[in-house]
Amino acid sequence: MVQSDALRQLVADQTRAFPYAELLSVSSKAAVSRAVSSGWLSRVLPCVYAHATHACAFTARADAALLWAQEGSVIAGTSAMWVWGLLTKPPAKVHVLVPQQQRKDAPDWLSVTRVRDPGRSAVVGRLVVSTPADAIVRGFSHIHPRDRSATVYRAVQRGLVSPEQLSDALLRTARVPERRRLEQLVASARAGAESFLEERALRAVFNTREFANLLPQHDYFLEGWTYRIDLYDPVTRTAFEIDSAAHHGSTADRLRDIRRDAHLATDGVLTVRFSYQDIMERPHECRRIALEILRARSAGVWN
Questions:
Q1: Which of 26, 50, 122, 276 would bridge 55 by S-S if both were Cys, CB 3.0 to 4.6 A apart?
Q2: Which has the closest alpha carbon to 279: 248, 238, 234, 237?
Q3: What residues contact residue 181 under an 8 Å CB cut-off, 6+ apart?
């Protein structure tokens, strides 16, 4: 009974996994067996256990996978992306990379990939996980297609990863499903895009040599305020804004944009806004308008 109490005290309210040896350090084989039989302790993987209330939780399973796979294993792909906060819900399976020589049978909830080189990793809490760049490269094709671009841009915006780090991870990884699409996103992020709509604008509107001098995501400081401009031409003092419905659709958003544009105008900056529909459905017309504005301002018509 004393051993059972000590076992409960060790495991209680902890969402992690416990190797069998750790359980035996405070109890006995019989006490562990009784705990499993009574239902409050669960065997997650061979020689790895967790409190029954947490045994199916992602964190406990990921921890268990690393204990089971042992040294050299890494939580990877979408599982690592979840750990880094890049996904809104945990993946159905825990993905772990293990040394190539390992041969282990895994349950349905665990995806095991044998690799020669697991790539770069970091420690997050108790978990050894792929870096954000390596996680995205391996997990990109497993994200729903509609969420892929937003996930990559979100990672870059949060400072978790840079376009250069993603490029490096792509070079170090031989087989990458959807490699071409990820390379396109990396190139757009390097060019300054922070969303799918901005990527579309760079690729379909501002993609000719006349726009080569535009500064992407330019911070403009004016009288104590800092305004982030999507694309800024310093010669003609023209600001191009790509307005998505998500960030410019509400009345409050529109009022904010009006006040911002008016403040920038006091310093001679003209703000030109293109909507989601225009960028997606009329890119050539958007380009024509942008070019005419730049030519007119360059000629001094509005200066």
A1: 50
A2: 248
A3: 140, 148
Q: Are 129 and 85 in contact (CB under 8 A)?
A: no
DSSP string, 40-87: SEEEEETTEEEETTTTTSHHHHHHHHHHHH-TT-EE-HHHHHHHTT-S
pLDDT value, residue 300:
76
**Token representation of residue 232:** 């800024």
pLDDT at position 206: 94
Tell me what pLDDT residue 64 has. 95
CB 46 within 8 A of CB 38: no
Nearest to 302 by CA among 256, 257, 235, 243: 235
Q: 37 near 25, Cβ under 8 Å?
A: no
Residues 6+ away with beta carbon under 8 Å from 70: none
Burial of 46 (0-12, 13-18, 19+ CB in 10 A): exposed
Low-confidence ranges of the chain (pLDDT < 50): none
Q: Running DSSP on this structure, what letter comes out for residue 269?
A: P
Q: Please give the pLDDT value at position 174.
A: 87
How is residue 210 annotated by DSSP? G
SS (H, E, C) 101-166: CCCCCCCCCEEEEEECCCCCEEEECCEEEECHHHHHHHHHHHCCHHHHHHHHHHHHHCCCCCHHHH
Q: In what order do the strands lie in the sheet with 110-115?
A: 110-115, 94-99, 74-75, 127-130, 121-124
What's the CA gap between 84 and 72, in Å, rounded? 20
Q: Determine the Cα–Cα distance for residues 75 and 130; give it in Å rounded to an integer.
A: 6
State the Cα–Cα distance between residues 219 and 261, nearest whole angstrom. Answer: 14
What's the Cα-to-Cα distance from 217 to each of 229, 230, 290, rounded to whole Å? Answer: 5, 5, 17
